[in-house]
Design the sequence.
């Protein structure tokens, strides 16, 4: 076990554990926009910056992203020092200019006391803040149907050639993991449309509720070995079935 | 033939003896000279030699060299061992050169003419541009044919490698490099010995060694020259490095814009393999090592170490946080050492001549020499290698011959897009890793761009920000969004729509970039802006307050006029791309303001000071 | 174009993600752009999703998804060239060709591009037509160069 000083308090940490995780465990809030538990950290939004130093650094300190910085013995961390606050605010002002309608951006901007964005605001700006969560989720957990196209200021998330993708299975993992709800989709009854592709959603063998798309079922079967029949039962029915079985047993 | 530790010295000795009697006529066929028909010169020289029918008694060889670093004077032809130095050679001069060679009377008109004394100089040893230099990293540049491995071996090539493999442990090699005080030439100035030591100690295999030949700093070309002109030197440095850290695979990452460098490196690798200097059991020892070339994809950010490694892995070149060092987890998450081309080429020198020899030159914190690409508004545009600690003034005025006649020095930009612009008052600073950084710039990889009164520093700041907007990978918010806003502000200023509060906004953006960005591209992106604001603030103010660009660069903030000094020579009219200058011969000319695009061609062409820059109408 | 056309190019490279950029370079060299079927074939060869190939193909400037004009005219925008008036050269090229940087002329004869330093800075400013470098270029030279190309 190692020990760090977090906002003036001694805290036990596992070596190599990320500072963000430690802070959260200790109930300290750090804003994040590109962190998602299902994927490796990226360090893209830069909001989770914290200030770190060590006694032997003789007063010198640096800002690091807590989502990526490994805790190590003797580290002194402050999660809301003046430089941290100032830099986060500067970043949020930039995000406000880009995506003024994105709810978490507005909320954080309010928290950081931004009344007026100092830059020209793109009022109809895209909600996508390029946090890379959707693309990482799709690449790592699903089929990798979307990616970030171009570089720099022109970077954007898209399917190949911005056309319906053969790889997309319509699972909605990207849209659901997007912190700013920037990925539009329609989910009406047994029809679902995302990234320009429309899917049939199979209904639950038990109750008829929507479950998974045929493409998704095939993909899960192939990659995870879960049979299609098992997938065609919705979560509620699965839970009920288990409960019923349990009741029988208990009785 | 396969070389071994036992026979390499004998082989070299034989080559040296053979070559002693030989006269070499060497035609530069580097990228720059090729652009000016260097290949045509080489061919014509071949024909002329054949035609002259020199008998067996004259031992002469005709070969080509890589870039000497003075392409401005190209095509260059040299005759070794004396060092006869011909500039601006055309194919039709070949006959005269051969005749001069036979008679021992060099062709006067092709010799370099001294800028001040106007005297012709016969050999490059007498040319100030060369005589002021200490060419260590560039020791073979222009002196050998890059495609002849024997040329390299004859000039002590692979001697250091043999010494290392014959009697030094990897740890001893690392110690020697550390003792020499070799710091990375790619910009950061990181201690190479320390980097090697961590990688040598790291667990995990295989280990990799990478040579960074991406040379993204626009305006710098020393790495190109070295790779093109002395590829074996780079290979030897890498092989020694690989031995020191225990790497089995190496990569050379070369910019895609440098096809000739790739060609020469590939040939060098093939020749080295053939002779047992690369591949399995190098020089008959039990050390094996291979190298592959990876071509860059035209992305400046891929010069950054973590982005470069992603690129070799076949991925998008986005940097990663470096909280875990590459020495532990680099390429393919294995221990990796990455060094710059010039760093590697210093290695054989250090091991051959000894760490003390290397460390005896330079300053307290920066040892050895450094190659600079001194270009822009100077008389001699080219590569200049000098001991660390040489002042900017010596570099620009003594070696590069100062700014061309009639213009005045304004600023020198060092360190590329991560560096800054320094004014006349800072010219006595010694150029090394630490001094320039203290002044708000950095030595960087060695680009040194000189500007005169015809350059606008606001425009230069905007130029770098635009460059970085195009080159930012776009992964992190401060760099992607911050640079976009910065460009918008600077563009406004150069278009006459600047506001006083813009300068405050710029300061704020600089802070966010510096403190918030993920990699050094974003972190140092503020430097060009901050340094121009610091030293040339009045130019910003003049743009904003008076709507005037006195350099005549920002088209909306200036206009060109002809005054009474005009002699009517009509030179201006000839160079105007939109033909908006008119006037009778020998009479005052006029510029029609309507079609004028403020390109300034006329100003630069006029020899009578008759063109004036005024504010926009 | 059936994807088998690329078989020869692909064969030279081991079927791993590491080969991706090298293969794209080869395709770009052979076709002067990355045809769509090639991208699909490369994805299959390297066993990566097409989306990943797309992100690589669009990240690096060396690759182009559009066919280029008969000739490519590049203006060097490196610092050495910039301080010697490269922007004026680009303006002039845009004006004479009637297309913006990055575009191809309507008649398909020229693609106009910028490049960040080709390492011949001592001869700045530079204009590169296909593989031919032209140093110490002046705005007024542009007309002649384009005329010579006719
Ligand atoms: C944006 C960026 C671009 C860089 N470009 C180069 C480059 O073109 N060549 C180079 O050698 N180093 C470049 N570097 C520095 C490298 O990251 C790295 O520090 C260097 O190659 C290490 O070698 P050295 O220690 O021998 O200098 C760049 C760094 C950054 C942040
Ligand atoms: S769409 Fe959403 S999840 Fe995807 S990069 Fe944009 S903001 Fe992040
Ligand atoms: S600082 Fe710029 S180049 Fe570096 S990671 Fe961030 S966006 Fe990419
Ligand atoms: S959460 Fe750490 S950088 Fe976004
Ligand atoms: S190419 Fe000949 S001197 Fe540079
Ligand atoms: S800046 Fe144009 S060739 Fe280097």
Sequence:
């Amino acid at each position: 076990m190692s020990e760090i000083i977090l906002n003036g308090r001694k805290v036990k940490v596992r070596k190599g554990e990320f500072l963000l995780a430690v802070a959260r465990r200790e109930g300290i809030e750090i804003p994040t926009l590109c962190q998602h538990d299902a994927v490796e950290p990226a360090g893209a939004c830069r909001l989770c910056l914290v200030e770190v130093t060590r006694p032997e650094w003789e007063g010198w300190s640096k800002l690091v992203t807590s989502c990526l910085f490994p805790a190590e013995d003797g580290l002194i961390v402050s999660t809301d020092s003046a430089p941290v606050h100032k830099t986060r605010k500067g970043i949020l002002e930039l995000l406000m200019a880009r995506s003024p309608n994105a709810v978490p951006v507005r909320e954080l901007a309010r928290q950081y006391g931004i009344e007026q964005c100092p830059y020209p605001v793109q009022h109809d700006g895209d909600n996508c803040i390029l946090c890379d969560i959707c693309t990482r989720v799709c690449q790592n957990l699903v089929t990798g149907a979307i990616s970030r196209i171009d570089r720099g200021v022109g970077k954007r998330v898209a399917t190949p050639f911005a056309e319906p993708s053969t790889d997309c299975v319509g699972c909605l993992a990207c849209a659901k993991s997007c912190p700013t709800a920037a990925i539009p989709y329609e989910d009406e009854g047994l029809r679902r449309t995302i990234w320009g592709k429309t899917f049939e959603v199979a209904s639950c063998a038990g109750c008829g509720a929507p479950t998974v798309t045929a493409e998704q079922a095939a993909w899960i079967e192939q990659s995870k070995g879960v049979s299609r029949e098992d997938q065609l039962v919705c979560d509620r029915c699965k839970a009920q079935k288990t409960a019923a079985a349990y009741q029988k047993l208990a009785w | 033939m396969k070389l071994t530790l036992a026979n390499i010295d004998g082989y070299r000795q034989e080559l040296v003896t053979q070559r002693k009697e030989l006269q070499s006529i060497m035609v530069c066929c580097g990228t720059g000279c090729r652009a000016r028909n260097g290949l045509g010169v080489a061919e014509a020289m071949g024909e002329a030699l054949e035609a002259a029918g020199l008998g067996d008694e004259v031992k002469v060889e005709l070969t080509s060299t890589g870039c000497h670093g003075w392409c401005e004077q190209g095509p260059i032809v040299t005759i070794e061992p004396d060092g006869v130095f011909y500039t601006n050679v055309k194919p039709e001069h070949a006959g005269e050169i051969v005749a001069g060679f036979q008679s021992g009377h060099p062709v006067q008109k092709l010799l370099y003419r001294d800028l001040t004394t106007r005297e012709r100089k016969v050999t490059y040893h007498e040319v100030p541009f060369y005589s002021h230099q200490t060419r260590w990293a560039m020791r073979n540049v222009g002196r050998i044919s890059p495609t002849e491995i024997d040329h390299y071996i004859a000039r002590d090539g692979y001697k250091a490698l043999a010494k290392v493999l014959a009697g030094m442990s990897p740890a001893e090699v690392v110690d020697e490099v550390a003792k020499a005080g070799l710091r990375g030439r790619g910009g950061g100035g990181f201690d190479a010995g320390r980097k090697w030591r961590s990688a040598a100690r790291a667990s995990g295999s295989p280990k990799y060694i990478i040579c960074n030949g991406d040379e993204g700093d626009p305006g710098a070309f020393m790495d190109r020259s070295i790779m093109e002109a002395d590829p074996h030197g780079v290979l030897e440095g890498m092989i020694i490095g690989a031995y020191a850290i225990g790497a089995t695979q190496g990569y050379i990452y070369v910019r895609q814009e440098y096809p000739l460098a790739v060609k020469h490196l590939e040939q060098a690798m093939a020749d080295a393999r053939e002779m047992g200097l690369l591949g399995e059991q190098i020089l008959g020892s039990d050390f094996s090592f291979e190298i592959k070339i990876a071509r860059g994809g035209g992305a400046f950010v891929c010069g950054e170490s973590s982005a470069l490694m992603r690129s070799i892995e076949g991925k998008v070149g986005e940097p990663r946080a470096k909280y875990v060092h590459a020495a532990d987890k680099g390429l393919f998450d294995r221990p990796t050492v990455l060094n710059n081309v010039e760093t590697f080429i210093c290695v054989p020198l250090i091991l051959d001549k000894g760490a003390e020899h290397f460390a005896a030159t330079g300053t307290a914190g920066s040892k050895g020499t450094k190659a600079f690409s001194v270009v822009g508004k100077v008389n001699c545009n080219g590569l200049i290698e000098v001991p660390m600690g040489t002042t900017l003034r010596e570099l620009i005025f003594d070696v590069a011959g100062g700014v061309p006649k009639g213009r005045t020095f304004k600023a020198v930009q060092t360190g590329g897009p991560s560096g800054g612009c320094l004014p006349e008052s800072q010219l006595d600073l010694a150029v090394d890793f630490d001094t320039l950084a203290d002044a708000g710039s950095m030595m960087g990889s060695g680009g040194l761009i000189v500007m005169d009164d015809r350059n606008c520093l606001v425009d230069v700041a905007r130029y770098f920000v635009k460059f970085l907007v195009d080159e930012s990978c776009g992964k992190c918010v401060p760099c992607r969004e911050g640079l976009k806003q910065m460009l918008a502000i600077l563009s406004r200023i150069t278009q006459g729509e600047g506001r006083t509060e813009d300068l405050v906004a710029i300061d704020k953006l600089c802070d966010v970039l510096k403190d918030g960005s993920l990699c050094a591209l974003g972190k140092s992106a503020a430097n060009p802006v901050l340094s121009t604001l610091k030293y040339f603030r009045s130019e910003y103010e003049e743009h904003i307050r008076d709507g005037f660009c006195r350099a005549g660069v920002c088209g909306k903030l200036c206009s060109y006029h002809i005054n009474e000094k005009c002699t009517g020579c009509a030179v201006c009219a000839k160079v105007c791309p939109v033909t908006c200058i008119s006037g009778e011969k020998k009479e005052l000319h006029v510029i029609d303001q309507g079609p004028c695009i403020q390109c300034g061609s006329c100003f630069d062409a006029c020899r009578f000071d008759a063109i004036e820059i005024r504010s926009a109408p | 174009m059936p994807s088998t056309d690329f078989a020869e190019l692909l064969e030279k490279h081991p079927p791993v993600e590491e080969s991706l950029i090298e293969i794209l370079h080869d395709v770009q060299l052979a076709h002067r752009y990355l045809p769509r079927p090639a991208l699909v074939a490369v994805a299959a060869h390297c066993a990566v999703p097409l989306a990943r190939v797309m992100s690589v193909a669009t990240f690096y400037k060396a690759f182009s998804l559009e066919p280029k004009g008969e000739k490519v005219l590049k203006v060097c925008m490196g610092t050495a060239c910039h301080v010697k008036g490269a922007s004026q050269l680009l303006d002039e090229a845009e004006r004479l060709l009637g297309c913006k940087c990055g575009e191809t002329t309507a008649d398909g004869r020229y693609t106009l591009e910028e490049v960040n330093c080709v390492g011949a800075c001592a001869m700045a400013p530079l204009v590169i037509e296909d593989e031919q470098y032209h140093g110490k270029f002046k705005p007024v030279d542009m007309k002649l160069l384009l005329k010579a190309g006719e």
Summary: Chain A is about 30% helix and 20% strand. The two ends of chain A are 47 Å apart (CA to CA). The helical segments of chain A are 19-25, 82-98, 103-111, 133-141, 173-177, 214-224, 228-231, 235-250.
